[in-house]
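Appendix B.2, paired examples.
Example (i):
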Amino acid sequence: MYKFLRNILFCLPAEASHDFALHAMKIGDGLGVSSLFAANLAGKGQAKKVMGIHFPHVVGLAAGLDKNADYVDALSSMGFGFIEVGTLTPRPQSGNPKPRMFRLKSEQAIINRLGFNNKGIDHACENTARLRKRGVLGINIGKNFDTPAEQANQDYIHCLQRAYQLADYITVNISSPNTPGLRALQFGDEFTILLDELKQEQARLQERHKIYTPIAIKLAPDMSEEQISDCCQNLLSRDFDGVIATNTTLDRSLVASNPLAEESGGLSGAPLSVKSCEVLQCIKAEVGEKLPIISVGGIMSAEHAQQRLSAGADLLQIYTGFIYHGPALIEQILIGIDT
């Protein structure tokens, strides 16, 4: 049934079908018909504790599908073990000009240059506070596009403060290719200062609210081994709670023959699979068992999922795979992996 619906949705422009599908899921959830499309997970998947959080199983939804926590209840009905919303910024912003999302169907890929389009952290927090189906929830935070680089940390701290009591974990997105200058925050003094300020604020919030909300850092796939090593050592030395690898890639080598390959933005889906797994392996070699890893990027099958777990991932996230294969992918992964 999902394949039939996907073929209809793929007749629409990518972003329009994205919005339509989410609205349809929300209506279906309200009418109680989500079970027609949800993954059949009875007896499948095992619970796992990561970052001090109990996950019902290892397959989650990556940030980007539900930017504003408008559809968490509906998405929870699809069978995800956890859901990450965002990326969210302090102030609402419209993102980059349209069109800004493109399907590369033959490669099972998507290029997007959305640019953190979202309704702002306050809107998402209001939605999160009134969720009906409260599963494990991550909140992904970023900076506004017009915030000067020297003030970027203030945006992250503001979002951390707002989301701290509502999220099960918080993801710091410094790796999107669609906000100018954002990826520079992964390196050098900018990176270490941001990490220090995040940990200091986390400690203050823990003292104030008497709860500990883990923070994970999301990294790009387009880094050298030396850069990955530096990032990992900085995360370890500051006792961060997790790392998410990876965001979308700027590499077009595997889609060069596609007419859409020249569109700017981050590439996700099947062409990212090998690169994302290689970054995962590099990170695992650096951190061992000291830092939990959530693997995302190009997980399109149970085989891909098993490769990530074998390479050291603790949890998995899907996004483009969900677009192309629907909720059945969750079930296929949980049946096909060794747990």
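Example (ii):
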Amino acid sequence: MRDNAIEIKGVSKFVDGKPIVYRVNLEVPKGTLYGLLGPNGAGKSTTIKLLTGRIRPSSGKIRINGIDPWKDRVTVNSMIGYLPQNSIQYQEKTVIDFMVLMGKLIGKNKYDAKKDGRDILDQVGLGRFEDMKIGKLSGGEKQRLGFANALIGDPEILILDEPTASLDPAGRVYVMNLIKSLSEDDSKTVVISSHILPEIRRMTNHVAIMSEGSVLTSGNIHELTKDVYDKEYELRTNKPSDLLNILLNNNYSAYQEKDRIFIDEIHSLEEFWSILPKLCSEKGIEIRSMIPKRDSLETLFLDLVNKKQRQKEEINE
């Protein structure tokens, strides 16, 4: 079993008496790509600020490799590369001068800071911008520079708050692939906060789903979703009208769009597949594909968030 790089036990953070995060428990195994997934306002950024020692928890315990980030920020900061949601850089400095400054702040000499800075800029696709002033970079280029800053010193833990924000589609793909490559040898632990579910699915192998400051579930994505399936499916067939009639006659809620059939509610896939092949064979209907409308992680996410919202509404009634 892997040791944990990060442990959060019963952590809450109150601001003006309001819980921003509440009784959060998380374990992030070393060498994992770990996603904090949730809508805006779920508490993801606050959780990251707690992890990096930027703010102090109101209650509970946080440990980064066994160290309290609030009490020993210097030691923890030497382990962590951090990309904040709104990365702030020196607008009048050139890109390479900024990287040299950041390298010197962690103890590198100027020569090593410049050499390493150039290597990292190449890694994030900014090598040709090294002599440009930061203020003239685009929003996406500034985001890449913030990511480059997080990589200085080759930290064993990366904490990235919305790492693809401001990037164009090509930049998003580039950064997502880079993040995936960082953990290929299990030497780095990467924590990524995002509200964009497909990106979390692509970048991570573990996830915590958050809503309104609480963790609704957490763990390995495969384990969390192995028994989760969507209730809505798209079917393609050689005889869409005939298939639609069969489904309607067997009390399924379905409709047709051109050559595709959509089923609104399948409560039991096992039952559905025990009935459908026999009915289709009698009519010479060929099922060419059956695709869930939503990814299993998306289904789990929406089910949990909607359940949380319903519970809140019931309490307020």
